[in-house]
Amino acid sequence: MNIILASAEVAPFAKRGGLGDIAQFLPTDWEKFGQNSIVILPKYRDINVDFYGFKPTYRILYVPLGNWTEFAHLWEGRLPDTNVPVYLVENDDYFNRNGIYGDPDEYPDNDRRFIFFSRSVFETAKSLNFKPDIIHSHDFHTAFTMAFLKSHYRYDPLFNQTAGVYTIHNLAYQGWFDPDRAMFFSTFGIKEFYPGCWFEHYGKVNAMKTGIMFADKITTVSPTYANEIRSGYYSEGLQDVLNLRGADLIGVLNGVLYTEWNPSIDLYINHKYDLNSLEKKKLNKLEFLREHKVEDYDNPELPLVGMISRLTEQKGLDLLIDKLEYYLDNNIFRFVLLGSGEARYTDYFKYIQWKYPGKALIHLGYNTSLSHQIIAASDYLILPSRFEPCGMTQMFALRYGTIPVVRQTGGLADTVFEYIPATGNGNGFTFWHYNSDDFAYAMRRALSIYQQEPHWTIIRKNAMSCDYSSSRSALEYLKVFTWALEKVR
Ligand code: ADP
Ligand code: GLC
Prior knowledge:
This protein is an alpha/beta fold and 489 residues long. The chain folds into two domains: 2-257 and 471-488, Glycogen Phosphorylase B (Rossmann fold); 278-467, Glycogen Phosphorylase B (Rossmann fold), CATH 3.40.50. It is 37% helix and 20% strand. The protein has helices at 18-32, 49-52, 92-95, 110-128, 144-150, 179-185, 207-214, 223-228, 232-235, 239-244, 281-291, 317-329, 343-355, 368-377, 393-399, 410-415, 436-448, 455-465, 470-488, and strands at residues 2-6, 36-42, 55-65, 68-78, 85-90, 134-138, 163-168, 176-177, 200-201, 204-206, 217-220, 249-251, 304-311, 334-341, 360-364, 380-383, 403-407, 429-431. A hairpin with a 6-residue loop joins strand 4 (68-78) and strand 5. Helix 1 crosses helix 19, helix 4 (110-128) crosses helix 5 (144-150) and helix 5 (144-150) crosses helix 7. The two termini are 14 Å apart. The relative contact order is 0.11. Residues 17-19, 21, 308-310, 338-340, 366-368, 371, 390-393 line the site of adenosine-5'-diphosphate. Alpha-D-glucopyranose (GLC) is lined by residues 17-19, 22, 169-170, 221, 254, 388-392.
């Protein structure tokens, strides 16, 4: 199959969260299954083109926008360790800026930037004469590709046999656009905007709704989230739209590229280990503590609890904040955080760092190598998320024998199962009610088996044996693609 994957994030070039991981992992696996995919993303200023070996193609794209034409250059590179072509769309006005979505606040012209990018996906394919069977777009940024496919490019011979598949990674970010601007930039014209039309939601253009309505098939990133979002609490106001397209909505669980996240070959950790050399995991913890100048680093008895996260309300930080000082005051565990995000949370963690030196190891910012080291060094990883479409870090943690403690929602509920000491089944600890006492109770159960044999070995082996490989997701997407093609052929 010829597949175009269009995304605002693709790891390792430009990533803020799990979207970037998935946009890298899927095409990497599709190549193994003999599929012919190309990846398209904007050429943001922060992408290190020299480091990743991107070269200009000297192709110029003519991108219709509003009532004029804009231009872009195309750069070409490859996904790491593959032959999958990656095209960067270069337009300095839109993308030669700091960050991806803003710096730090969202750019006010993100409507225009991402409508431009969505349109340039088609112009890229035309320039390359690439005839896609599937256009696979992700989240609100590339949602307009679904509308363009069914309208402006519907009779183009390159696209008249193409199906559109739209993947929802997070309904919390929908892309609410001003109708005058969005309808103009997308060249639909304001006459196409009226109450109840496929673009409209509560009087605004809603990019997420647009993607959902125009796609042939809609996927989201875990079966549980696919169910949750059909009702009010998780749908962020889109339950009617999602139920309208309910027959075409399917949950495909994300997966992990185990050549990147694997403790036996991880380039970022010094002490490699696997299921049969689990005792070496501790060396990573000792080294990590030593590097952090923790005075009693030789006290491995104190559990190390980690968290790697965007710092937003979604991630359940309020539950942690309610209990963290109790844990640290009472020497119950040592805490390590790697995260970036909202000021109310970064301020809080700065305070914790100041108050608990050596007990709270706080890293504010974005750091890929540290994320691997923390997963390897920690005994537990927490995700008390209020909602979590899938979550990647719990799946990374499992492979590293780092025990997840999670709220049972979305993909967390599909990947982490309560450990039952009586049977020796389970790979982590879970709670359901969103309150800090239930979180604390799950933590208590988790900590109660810390270094308690045989449980500590059994649960970690159970965790490391779980197979949440991205190959499985990649195959499932191929089934969805075949199903989507039935709609257009
Ligand atoms: P989300 O996409 O909602 O942020 P996920 O768990 O799906 O949550 O994915 C988060 C991804 O981003 C993981 O690959 C995680 O390791 C990475 N990540 C999050 N915060 C940081 C950070 N501060 N530094 C490095 N990697 C991070
Ligand atoms: C979103 C979700 C996260 C998911 C990721 C990749 O950012 O918040 O749960 O794992 O996308 O699909």
